[in-house]
Amino acid sequence: MMVTFEELQSFLAEQFPQGARYGTLQELGDGWAEMKLEVAEEHLRPGGTVSGPAMMALADVALYAALLGKIGLVPLAVTSNLNINFLRKPVAHSPIRARASMLRVGKTSGVGEVYILSDGLEDPVAHATITYAIPAQR
């Protein structure tokens, strides 16, 4: 692992402070990360379910953490593709969690997947595949 949990937490707070709205880092490993979002009213859409954008943001930031845990603190690694499938309705006022893992990390890109889970449900509520563009070394 290139980055410790504490280093990544500090980096995210300094370089991506708005990311805290999308969840907090819970665990970090070599190419994987877990994040948690405490669902608030701002994350709900009409009908009392967690909004798609809230789940997408959580998935994106979780995989960003997993990638940086693998390659180091590379601020300009950016999302180049995100595909998400919403599988079932999350529990409206329960936290959601993202389990992100890198499937492949190359010199210029990284591909991973994220399962979104809702506290109170056994099965995932969403599944995302995400590709990140990694800037060339200078």
Automatic annotation (TrEMBL):
Entry-linked SUPFAM superfamilies: Thioesterase/thiol ester dehydrase-isomerase
Sequence intervals crossing the membrane: none
Keyword Hydrolase recorded: yes
GO molecular function, one term: acyl-CoA hydrolase activity
Keywords associated with the record: Hydrolase
InterPro entries linked to this entry: HotDog_dom_sf, PAAI_dom, Thioestr_dom
Family matches, as Gene3D superfamilies: Hotdog Thioesterase
Keyword Hydrolase: yes
Every Thioesterase domain range: 47-119
UniProt protein name: Uncharacterized domain 1
UniProt organism field: Marinobacter algicola DG893
